[in-house]
Amino acid sequence: MSKKHPIISVTGSSGAGTTTVKSTFDQIFRREGVSTVSIEGDAFHRFDRSDMKAELEARKAAGEETFSHFSYDANELGKLEEVFRTYGETGQGTTRHYVHDEEEAERYGAPPGTFTDWAPFDDGSDLLFYEGLHGAVVNDEVDLAALADLKIGVVPVVNLEWIQKIHRDKDKRGYTTEAVTDTILRRMHAYVHCICPQFSETDINFQRVPVVDTSNPFIARWIPTPDESLVVIRFKDPRGIDFPYLMSMIADSWMTRANSLVIPGGKMDLAMQLIFTPMILRLVHESKRT
C-alpha cells in the first residue's frame, strides 16, 4: 500500500462484468477531477494469441488439460507486482495493451491478438486503477493484495458469469457456443485455484444474483437484466460503513449480515457511486497530504 500513490484493483474472471464496473469508476474520476492511470490485466498475459494457441497445443500434447489465461503461469504476475510496487513508491510505471479485435487494432495500431509496446505512464496521476483477472493474487511468488489500497471483487454467481461470457464472446469475438464452453471447461481448475482465492483478499465484493431461471446457461437466449437481479455487497471490514445511510439512499435494500448489503440489481451503479466516491476522495486527499 502507498498513501502517496494509491492503487485501486478491480478483480473478476472473464465475463464477470469488471469492464462495466470500470465505467462507473471512470464516471467518478471525471466528476471529481481525479487523474488516473488505468492498466488492464490482459496487458500482462505472457503470450499473444498465436503463441498462446501454440502453448495450449504443447501442453495438451503433454497431457495438461487445464492451462488457460486464468493460470498463474500464463501471466506476467511478477511484472504486474513490479508495476504495482513501482507506482506505489514513485507514481511511475509502464503498461501496454492487448489488442482484442479489429476495432482495437485501429485504435492502437497493432494487429488483433498482439500486444502494443510497453510505454511509460503519464506524469501527475492521482492514483493507479487496475482491472483484470489477477489484481489480488497472493501466492508463493507474488503478493499483489498487499500492494493495492482498495481491492474490489466482481463475482456474479457462476451460471450468470457463464451466460455473460458466452454472449460476449459470441457477439463481440465471433466464437461459437461450443468453443466458449470448451474454454470454460478448460479454465475450471484455474478458476477454483487462481481466481476464487482472490475474493477472500478483496475489501468489497459485488455479487450479482439473477432472480430468473439460469439453470442451463449454455442455452440461455438472453442475459438476465439488472432488474432481474439482486446484488450482494460484502464488506471485508464493515467498520466505518454507514449502512443506515446506504439503505436510506438505495430503495428496497436490506442487510443480511453485519457486513452484507443486498440491493436491487438496477441500483448497482448508484451503490458504487455512494460507496466509492468518499473512499476515492479519501485516498486522494491522504496522498496529497503525504
Could you characterize the architecture of this molecule?
- The structure is a single chain.
- By secondary structure, the protein is of the alpha/beta class.
- Helices cover 39% and strands 17% of the residues.
- It has helices at residues 18-32, 49-61, 77-90, 102-108, 158-173, 177-195, 243-249, 268-289, and strands at residues 7-11, 36-40, 94-95, 119-120, 127-132, 150-154, 204-210, 229-235, 254-257, 260-264.
- The strands form 2 sheets. The protein has an 8-stranded mixed beta sheet with strand order 2-5-1-6-7-8-10-9, sandwiched between helices. Strands 3-4 form a two-stranded antiparallel ribbon.
- The longest helix has 22 residues, at 268-289.
- The mean pLDDT is 95.
Output the keywords.
10 strands; 290 residues; alpha/beta; 8-stranded mixed β-sheet; 8 helices
- What is the residue-mean pLDDT, rounded to a whole number? 95
> What proportion of the residues is helical, as a percent range?
25-40%
Order of helices and strands: EHEHHEHEEEHHEEHEEH
Termini separation comes to: 13 Å
Oligomeric state of the chains present here = single chain
User: Going across the major beta sheet, what is the strand order?
Assistant: 2-5-1-6-7-8-10-9
Low-confidence stretches: none
Brief write-up:
The chain contains eight helices and ten strands.
Helix and strand arrangement:
Layout (H helix, E strand, L loop, with lengths): L6 E5 L6 H15 L3 E5 L8 H13 L15 H14 L3 E2 L6 H7 L10 E2 L6 E6 L17 E5 L3 H16 L3 H19 L8 E7 L18 E7 L7 H7 L4 E4 L2 E5 L3 H22 L1
Parallel strand pairs: 1-5, 1-6, 2-5, 6-7
Antiparallel strand pairs: 3-4, 7-8, 8-10, 9-10
Helix pairs in contact: 1-8, 5-6
